[in-house]
Design a protein that fits this description.
Layout lengths: L5 E2 L8 H12 L13 E7 L4 H10 L11 E6 L10 H10 L20 H7 L3 E9 L3 H7 L8 H6 L8 E5 L2 H4 L8 H7 L2 E5 L15 E5 L15 H14 L5 E7 L2 H6 L3 H25 L2 E6 L3 E2 L3 E2 L9 E3 L5 E2 L3 E6 L8 E4 L2 H10 L7 H8 L1
Parallel strand pairs: 2-8, 2-9, 3-15, 4-5, 4-8, 5-7, 6-7
Antiparallel strand pairs: 1-12, 3-14, 9-14, 10-13, 11-12
The structure holds magnesium ion (2 copies) and zinc ion.
Length: about 375
Amino acid sequence: MKKCLLYIQCSVIVLMSCTQSRSIVDSGSIETTPHSTQPKNVILIIGDGMGLTQMTAGIYSNGNQSQYERCQYIGIHKPYSSDHLITDSAAGATAFACGQKTYNGAIAVDSDSLPLPTLLEEAEDRGLATGLIATSSIVHATPASFIAHNRHRKNYEEIAEDFLKTEIDFFVGGGKKYFDGRDKDERNLIEELRSRGYRISTYFDEELEEITLDPSERFGYLTSNKEPLPHSQGRDYLPMAVQMGLSHLSAHDGDGFFLMIEGSQIDWGGHANNASYVIDEWKELNEVVGQVLDWAEKDGETLVVITADHETGGLAIQYESKMDSIVAAFTSDYHTGAMIPVYSHGPRAEIFSGIYENTAIYDKIRKAYGWSEPSPRDTRLRQKK
Ligand code: MG
Ligand code: MG
Ligand code: ZN
């Protein structure tokens, strides 16, 4: 067993909002009746590689507090894929997006590489606004599995082309070069999106916070040329992107929205066996979870579901650990097979309690929205092949 010990010093930070939400719980005034109405909006937050020990290390390193503790219901999913007990992020995200177990590397296609309709496409077909936000490139496996169909996750330039086959309303992530600096052809997908009415901007042109959006325009922002830097080294764009995404998608005069937000790099910290990288990325996502829950509570018609695709690194918290100084050991530099917690909040949150397959996340989100018919896109996608 490969064992890599890392000693992490963490200062105790007490967040004001946590203290407030805790006092509500303590006073017993938190609502106990499940929402009976169905949500208008669903926000799915994926912490890539965020297993229960990543969560534990994050919470203890954060003064024993987290925004996740505001969630009313907790479930557990089984993350294995169709061809391996240990899933990769492509098969993991495809299970959430399409409700089918598939092979590792598959982007919203089944075991025969045939395209499967995604939650984002179904939402769009039903008149909802849609969005994707990631701290990886926007064509990386997790966000890609909601918008593209490809036999292999590494076909980034082909995945970028699939952004032109949807009407996605808002996206933020890295990967500019897959749109306008392509190896396989001379296409400039940024210009092609603009000619279809999109406002597309990049880190090269302006900062995200300088942008004021017109609610009627569809928007994309590329935060880097390839993969964005870690939170500790790069610009902290995730909270800003989420704030913009929430106000933009909720201003859309459709029937609600579907938004997927990914904290992509908790996984990369795990692959690097770097516990401080994991904890730093966890803290960034924790802040965003708080921001989203604040917004959703005010809105009252938004279901928030937070989970991970798999655990990364086989992280274990060692005997020498203290609350504010976690000593972490890793057993792997890849993903592990541990089951994964699901945290839910808002209308229909109760249907996410229990133990189930990762594919049930898709079924439960459709059920929460009240979608009973199969996606009309299913046949259309299959005919295209
Ligand atoms: Mg992953
Ligand atoms: Mg990912
Ligand atoms: Zn990974």
